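Why does residue order matter? Because the sequence determines the fold. Keep that principle in mind as you read this record.
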Amino acid sequence: MQRAEQKSRRKVAQETRARIAVVVSRFNEDVTSRLLQGAIDCLQSHGIGQTDRHVVHCPGAFEIPQAARTLLATGDWDGVVCLGAVIRGETPHFDYVSSAAALGIQTTALAFGVPVGFGVLTTNTHQQAMDRAGGKHGNKGWEAADAVVSMIQMQRSLATGRARQKPRRSRR
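Structure:
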């Protein structure tokens, strides 16, 4: 990212004074700790410091939606970043946990109308997870945090009318 773009994004984030919670699973902690670091680095790059963020650890990916709902029910948070890693094993457990986490996170976002970032890796192997937690495929923790900040900015922009424009007519 260009330096000027970073300064611009930091200024926007500071203007919004967003308070963001991060829910991170302890299961597969060698992966999730890297996702967490990526999310924190992203939030800091947007000017969201320690006083405007809070990290909550939960047992596993299945529990992430409940932790996110609990945080949002307080009304204290403008967004939540959800981080976890579900790695396929020999049983269908992977399918149940990954589906429940995804649906629970989406349901939470829709129920509260608050941005909730999906940073739960669902991979076939441990190496694939590591590749997406700061490895050759980037850091999905960073991406989930960035999505939350972007959605907060978009929602606030729409609420204040800054993003309202007349729709263009399509030519047929």
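The radius of gyration is 17 Å.
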